[in-house]
Every structure is written in C-alpha cells, then in structure tokens.
Specification:
31% helix, elongated
C-alpha cells in the first residue's frame, strides 16, 4: 500500500501503480518548493541585502552604527560576508564605534535568528575574529582576495525597522533564484528549502501554487514544510511528475530546462554522487528513515525524455534505493541509452558564471 509509480512520456502513460495516492514525498517536496519559488519570483530574482551607516566616516572610523537590512537571502554565507567586508574597507571603514544593527529577515550560514546571524556577520566582517569555518571558506576564494578588517566596538542589536537618515554603503546581491534552487536541490539543503518555502508564502501556499501550476487536484499535494522533513509531507507520484513537467514548461520561456534547477547525473556534484543512476538523467531523490523517493527526467532513445516518480515507504530505505536503481537501469536498457543530453533537458549555457556579488552604492 505504500508504494507508488508514475511514468509518462509526451501524452503516453507508460506505468501507473497507485499513481494518484499521496505518499510520503521526503525531499521530493523540494520540487514543489522549486516550482512555487519560480512562479512567485522568476529564475533571475536576486535577494538584496543592504548595508548602511548611521553616522559619518572619519579617518577609517564609522562614527555610529553599521546597519544590515536582510531580504531572506538563503545563501548568504562566509563568502558573502567577506565580500561585503572588503567593500566596506574600500570605502575607508576599518572600525565602527557603534553597534551592528540587524533589520528584517537577515539569514546567514543557514541560520535565521537575527541575534545569531548578526553575531556570525560581525565575525565574518573581521578577518581577525574568523572561526575555523570562515578560514576554510576563505581558502576556496581566488588567490589574493583581501581579508576584511571591520572591528565593531558595540554589540549586535535587532530592530524592527531601519533607523532614520541612514547612509547607504553596500548592496549584496544573492545568486539568482535558479542558481539558489540548483544548490538547494543538488545538496538537498533542508534549511534553504524551508527559507525559500517561507519566502514564497509558507508550506500551504507552496502546496497550492504547485498543484495549480502542475494541474493536479490540490488533494494530491499536502505539505507541512518546504523541505520534506516529516512523513506528513505527501504527494502522489502523478503530482510529483506533473510538478517536474510544470517546472520544465515554466522555464522554457527563459530558454532554460529542469537541468538548470536539478542535478544532472554524472555532471553535477551533490548527494546523488554515490548512487549508480543512469547518466544524464535529471533527478531529485528523497530519504527519510522508512522512505525513499526518486523522480525526474530520464533520457531514452525509444520514448525521448521519460518523466517518472518512484515513491517507496514503510520499509528499509536502502533496499528501496537499490530497487529504484535497478528499475531505472532496466528502463534505459529496454528503451535505449542516449549518448548526449537531449535539448529538452540540457542546462542553459547562459547560466554559467551567474553568482552573488556586492557593489558600493555610496
């Protein structure tokens, strides 16, 4: 009773076992989050974090507070803090006499509580107070990247709205949404998924938007969060497949495909690395203690791109995984292996090099 399959290509339904029954989706929930986020913001949306000052800058000292205004960037990490710190140094700021003031939803290192994220930012802006994790990330940056030095004398303060008469200093632009979603899906990052789902309106809104865009009954997508943690997140195999197809349709207008937001087996690093799945398939997996799910696009010679969802629960997820891998292997053996990525699931070359950046706005 806990197993479901849906396989289709074009207008042809190739397999259906309990395909319309909602089953635990695990991280296939992130496909619904992906669709809802795209339809809310578009693939090029960037979350902008603003930095400003409440006083003048004299002889390397900001006489006042440094204010950070968040906008729910789910991938503001040490690297972004280092970039902002270097921009502030370029403006001549070495010290801040006042506090670090956090306004709005400023997230950092997948943390969301403003006192915590403000403390992380304060550390990140000053190369002399980096924890080992910041040092490790710094080592991955281009050689010669300066170490920022912004010493903030005061504490982290959290306020509801920005102080009056602040002077803009730096804007930090996130990775575009499509690139954020691909990171989220490649590594199945639960915290990013929760953040993006909340930004899109919360779990119930994500479920509604996904069902509408996918053209399936709302009863086939029921979510309690955007990540898939918890067996209460349920989707039918048909709904999962329809969500992938809706993402594909939506992205066509941007000359993009599902491969711009999900991992390509054999090409993209991520959690799928250790699984023997057919090369060039574009997939998302999900795992909970007694749940294993797998869905996406499988390129074949006979049927072209085959869209599938396999959802297993109520047993050993490692056995389910092996069975899923065997099934896909059988399908490509039967329907023919392709040698190169078909155009309908090829990532857009225009997305190469799109990333986060900061700019001085003073």
């Amino acid at each position: 009773t806990n197993q479901g399959i849906w396989i289709e290509s074009g207008d042809t339904l190739l397999a259906n076992h309990q395909g319309t029954i909602p089953l635990p989706a695990a991280s296939l929930t992130k496909a619904a989050t992906t669709l809802a986020a795209l339809s809310t913001f578009g693939p090029d949306h960037q979350f902008i974090t603003k930095f400003s000052a409440t006083g003048p800058i004299e002889n390397g000292v900001l006489q006042g507070d440094l204010v950070v205004e968040g906008s729910e960037d789910p991938f503001f990490v040490w690297e972004e803090a280092i970039a902002v710190g270097n921009q502030l140094n370029q403006l001549g700021i070495k010290q801040v006499t006042g506090n670090l003031v956090v306004v709005g939803k400023f997230y950092m290192n997948f943390e969301t509580l403003p006192l915590k994220t403000g403390t992380l930012l304060k550390q990140g802006l000053n190369g002399k107070s980096w924890p080992p994790a910041a040092e490790t990330q710094y080592q991955t940056l281009p050689p010669g990247t300066p170490r920022p030095e912004i010493a903030i004398a005061g504490s982290v303060q959290v306020v509801a709205s920005p102080p009056d008469n602040v002077q803009p200093l730096v804007r930090q632009y996130s990775f575009p949404l499509a690139e954020l979603l691909k990171k989220m899906n490649r590594y199945s990052n639960n915290k990013m998924a929760e953040m993006l789902a909340n930004t899109a309106g919360g779990a119930k809104v994500v479920a509604r938007k996904a069902a509408e865009a996918a053209g399936v009954p709302p009863s086939e997508i029921s979510l309690i969060n955007g990540s898939g943690l918890g067996e209460e997140n349920r989707m039918s195999p048909r709904a999962v497949t329809a969500v992938f197809l809706a993402i594909e349709r939506y992205l066509q207008q941007y000359n993009m495909t599902v491969a711009d937001v999900f991992a390509i087996v054999g090409q993209d690093k991520g959690i799928l690395n250790e699984r023997p799945l057919p090369n060039l398939a574009v997939v998302k997996s999900g795992s909970l203690n007694y749940v294993s799910t797998l869905a996406g696009a499988l390129p074949t010679q006979t049927y072209g791109t085959v869209w599938f969802a396999v959802m297993n629960s109520g047993g050993d997820f490692t056995k389910f995984r092996t069975q899923q891998e065997m099934l896909l292997k059988e399908l490509v053996t039967k329907w023919g292996v392709v040698q190169s990525v078909p155009s309908d699931i090829k990532p857009s070359p225009q997305r190469i090099g799109k990333r986060s950046f900061s700019e001085i706005v003073r």
